[in-house]
Specification:
CATH architecture: 3-Layer(aba) Sandwich
Helix content: 40-55%
Oligomer: single chain
Number of domains: 1
Low-confidence stretches: none
CATH topology: Alpha/beta knot
Distance between the termini: 19 Å
CATH superfamily: SPOUT methyltransferase, trefoil knot domain
Mean pLDDT: 90
Order of helices and strands: HHEHEHEHEEEHEHHH
Radius of gyration: 19 Å
Strand content: 5-15%
CATH class: Alpha Beta
Length: 230
């Protein structure tokens, strides 16, 4: 693991030589706000504009990972809405099984996340009262159908965003933005260790560099050849 980290640091240093100083400065500014303490799950969302707006909010609030469950509907990014935000996120797709919801939930629970359904429930909790000390995975469903029975049955907690009007609910993109603003604001003012690890940081920086470089695979191969010759 140590040697792997040394290699990745050296690789990023090499790739950095091909990036502008403004881009490197931007990377350094943004990486310090990325977090894996909070992640977002999108379950079977077929409205591309709403899902893409959620991705945009995730990037703006520093979320690193988004988990996309595709039970019957394939996920499509709306470029006009996402505005390239998907390039700066780790998108994890679950589309191989009959019920990808359970596969996604199991993976995240094994990684130490609490699965929190964003829907009113008899055992729900108001957003401002939700504890933030442990890792949280917030799951959002479709506009019309909401979350599936499997998602509701296997969620650990339920959170409700306060509303004071006649309409039954916010749309998914608004819900995600409100929720993430509250949670991230509280995390930033807390003593919780919410920032990503050094390993995740260097992997993320390499990924970002690949996104902006022309033919990054050729640069990486050149670096690897030099590395092996040492």
């Amino acid at each position: 693991m140590k040697n792997d980290l040394i290699y990745k640091k050296a690789l990023y240093k090499y790739l950095s030589q091909h990036l502008t100083s403004n881009k490197l400065k931007k990377f350094r500014e943004i990486i310090q706000y990325r977090t894996k303490h909070v992640t977002v799950i999108l379950e079977n969302i077929y409205q591309s504009h709403n899902a893409s707006a959620v991705l945009r909010s995730c990037d703006c609030f520093g979320i690193l990972d988004v988990h996309i469950i595709e039970n019957g509907y394939s996920f499509q990014v709306s470029k006009d809405i996402a505005l390239g935000s998907n390039k700066w996120l780790n998108l994890h797709h679950y589309r191989e099984k009959d019920n990808n919801t359970l596969s996604c939930f199991k993976k995240l629970k094994d990684d130490g996340y609490r699965i929190i359904a964003t829907t009113p429930h008899t055992n729900d909790c108001l957003l401002q009262d939700l504890p933030i000390y442990d890792k949280m995975a917030f799951v959002f469903g479709t506009e019309l159908e909401g979350l599936s029975k499997e998602a509701l049955d296997h969620s650990d907690e339920f959170v409700r965003i306060p509303m004071f009007g006649f309409t039954e609910s916010y749309n998914i993109s608004v819900s995600a933005a409100i929720l993430l603003y509250d949670i991230i604001s509280r995390l930033h003012s807390s003593v919780i260790d919410w920032q990503i690890s050094k390993e995740d940081e260097i992997e993320t920086l390499i990924s970002w560099a690949r996104n902006v470089l022309k033919k990054p695979e050729l640069l990486e191969q050149k670096f690897l050849n030099c590395w092996l010759e040492q």
